[in-house]
Structures are given as C-alpha cells and as structure tokens.
Amino acid sequence: MSIGDICDRDVVVAEREMTIFDAALLMKQADVATLIVTQENDGVLEAVGILGRDDIISKVVAAALDPRQVTLAHIMNPFIGRVNETASVFEAMQLMHDQDLRQVVVIDSSETVAGILTSHKLFQQMAAEFIDFSTLVEQRGPLQDVKGSNAEH
C-alpha cells in the first residue's frame, strides 16, 4: 500500500499573505485542521509552508496578536516534509519520525501537491491493518512451528 492510497486528497491551500482571521474562517468552512500555504513562483503555485490549528492557538491567540493583522507568512511552519505518493507507509513514517513532523505534503511525479498525510491518519491506517491481521490469525487457529507441532506448548 502506498501513501497515495491513504492520504487525504482534499487539500485546502491558502496564499501566504492571507490573514490568520481569513485562514481560520477558511479552515472552519472547509472543516480542516491544516492548511498548505502557497506562493506563486513564475505562474506556478508552490507549497512553501504549513499551518495547523495549533499554530493559530499558540502563535496568535496565546500571544494576544490581532488575527486580522498577522499573515500566514508570519506564523506558518516554513519547513514542509514532502513524500511522493508512491512511497510506502514505512517510508512516510520514517520521514515523519526523523524530522519530527506531524504531517507531510504528498506530491505526485510532477512535484504537484497531491494530498496531505497526518500522523493521525497513519495511526488509523496502522490500527486498521493490525485489526485485520489479528482477525486473520484468530480465524486460522493456533500457529504451527516448523516441525508441525503446535507452537503453543
């Protein structure tokens, strides 16, 4: 299974000059917790950052800043982990672990944003696969060792 199979393809993007107030309204309207921040370079929208609900709370609300004056460029996380949609779940987990990321942008072969993958989504997928595996083992009965005797002594 590849990341392209499990990522969220309903990506919401916002220009880096958008105010936090407008970004919060967009997030509420789209019912998302994360925005991909973009900037136009030679007519192409490029992902330049990521903004989550927690960023708004900790960097604007808790700091008593005016959300109508602060832009995404001021508080976005400029480093965006990127993973190709053909990457394996393990590769994405490794990247997220190594770079301490809670979400990564999923890109296609032309480097275009194709989706977003969150640690929550990865956890849900892993839990579902574990449950499927457990059910399969349960249905098959006791495991046999190499000599054919019951592995549970």
Using brief descriptors, characterize the structure shown.
single chain; 3-stranded mixed sheet; 153 residues; elongated; alpha/beta; 6 strands; 6 helices; 39% helix
Summarize the structure.
The protein has helices at about 5, 20-30, 55-60, 70-75, 90-100, 120-140, and strands at about 15, 35-40, 45-50, 80-85, 105, 115-120.
Explained architecture:
With 153 residues, this protein is α/β, with parallel strands linked by helices. It contains six helices and six strands. The strands form two sheets. Strands 1-2-3 form a three-stranded mixed sheet. The longest helix has 22 residues, at 119-140. The chain starts with a helix and ends in a 13-residue tail after the last helix.
Helix/strand-derived category reads: alpha/beta
Query: What's the total number of strands?
Result: 6
Topology as a string of helices (H) and strands (E) = HEHEEHHEHEEH
Cα-based radius of gyration, to the nearest Å: 21 Å
What is the strand arrangement across the widest sheet? 1-2-3
Strand content: 15-25%
Helix content: 25-40%
Kindly report how far apart the N and C termini lie. Answer: 36 Å
Mean pLDDT metric:
87
| Overall 3D form | elongated
> Could you describe the largest sheet, including whether it forms a barrel?
3 strands, mixed
- Uncertain stretches of 5 or more adjacent residues: none
* SS summary, helix count: 6
